[in-house]
Write a structure and sequence with these properties.
Order of helices and strands: HHHHHHHH
Shape: globular
CATH class: Mainly Alpha
Structural class: mainly alpha
Helix content: 55-70%
Number of strands: 0
CATH topology: Ferritin
Strand content: under 5%
CATH superfamily: Ferritin, core subunit, four-helix bundle
CATH architecture: Up-down Bundle
Radius of gyration: 18 Å
Distance between the termini: 26 Å
Oligomer: single chain
Length: about 240
């Protein structure tokens, strides 16, 4: 296992595989950070049900764009231009979760509850990473992780509130959970990914894809059940097992 602490000045001397994987993970992370606002800001900002909800959408958008800025800066310092991600069409995003459009408050809430939670898991992979500029963003106390926790908490709270109304409101939330749950599980990638093993070898990630996915399910399934909702079949509609 690779345990060196790599600074920007050291990159010309690292193994080419290390550099390739680092470039890739930074581009994907930057794309995910900016991908969220592109999903929901157009429809959710002007149609929020209250002034507070509108403020939350605006603040969440600003924070995610700032997260993009941070990862884009790390990538830019090493010569990787990610500015194209700012105007990239949703259909071309790296991950399936960011390729559509969010047009309902149920989807916006469940997205925060489930998908932003996956985002937290992805960010936690970089804690203590061998590339020091990347690890530094997640050092305690991390503003990025703190803001991500806020997005998750708001999404979870609003999802629970809508589920508690029962009837058609609960049915609409269940439909959103049924859609986003398998999407969230797929975000962890294939359980047999060889690339994930190489990320771990080089100290750029801490867990296998399946380890992270199992931890996620153990965390989120009881929360879904506590809302009076059904946990979807974890195998149904999956693209990456």
């Amino acid at each position: 296992m690779f345990t060196d602490q790599v600074e920007l000045k050291d990159l010309p001397h690292v193994d080419p595989e290390y550099l390739q994987l680092l470039r890739r993970v930074l581009a994907i992370q930057a794309d995910c950070e900016i991908g969220g606002p592109h999903l929901y800001v157009d429809d959710m900002l002007p149609t929020a049900p209250s002034r507070l909800d509108q403020l939350v959408v605006a603040r969440t958008t600003a924070e995610e764009i700032d997260h993009f800025r941070k990862f884009a800066q790390i990538a830019g310092d090493m010569g990787v231009d990610t500015t194209y991600l700012l105007s990239r069409p949703n259909r071309d995003r790296y991950l399936e979760a960011f390729r559509g459009q969010i047009t309902t408050w149920e989807d916006f809430s469940v997205f925060g509850f489930l998908i932003d939670r996956v985002g937290r898991y992805q960010l936690e992979e970089f804690e203590g990473a061998t590339y020091v500029p990347l690890a530094r963003v997640l050092e305690h106390p991390s503003k990025v992780l703190e803001e991500e926790a806020g997005h998750i908490d708001y999404g979870e709270t609003r999802t629970a509130e809508m589920a508690a109304r029962g009837g058609e409101a609960r049915d609409r939330v269940q439909k959103s959970v049924d859609f986003w749950y398998p999407t969230a599980l797929d975000m962890f990638g294939s359980s047999t990914s060889k690339r994930a093993e190489r990320y771990m070898y080089w100290g750029l990630k801490r867990r296998t894809n399946d380890e992270a996915r199992q931890l996620y399910m153990a965390e989120v399934n009881p929360i879904i059940e506590s809302m009076g909702l059904q946990v979807p079949d974890p195998l149904a509609g999956r693209k990456f097992l």
